[in-house]
Design brief:
This protein has 82 residues and is mainly β. 0% of the residues lie in helices and 34% in strands. The chain has strands at residues 2-7, 21-22, 31-32, 37-42, 48-53, 67-72. It has a two-stranded parallel sheet with strand order 1-6. Strands 2-3 form a two-stranded antiparallel ribbon.
Length: 82
């Protein structure tokens, strides 16, 4: 079973600076270089959540039934802590 813990704010490639993105799975947070995988979730009440994930965190279509997605109150991580 795969668990994703995602910030409740959308983030796209244009939000990152410095040549790399950060996986938005708060349980991972690894730096990622292209290709970057995007995930779009329908978050209820007409809201859509866009996020980016590393290749290890993006769920395969066949694995969606075994993926737990927790959306939490958090800011997107746009750079790694120093």
């Amino acid at each position: 079973m795969k668990t994703l813990r995602l910030p409740n704010r959308s983030v796209g490639l244009e939000d990152f600076r410095g040549g790399y993105a950060v996986c938005q799975n708060l349980l991972c947070l690894c730096p990622i270089e292209p290709p970057v995988h995007t995930l779009t979730l329908q978050a209820g009440a007409g809201r859509t959540l866009h996020t980016v994930l590393c290749c290890l965190c993006v769920p395969e279509t066949r694995d969606l039934a075994d993926t737990v997605i927790n959306v939490v109150e958090a800011e997107p991580v746009l750079e790694l802590p120093r």
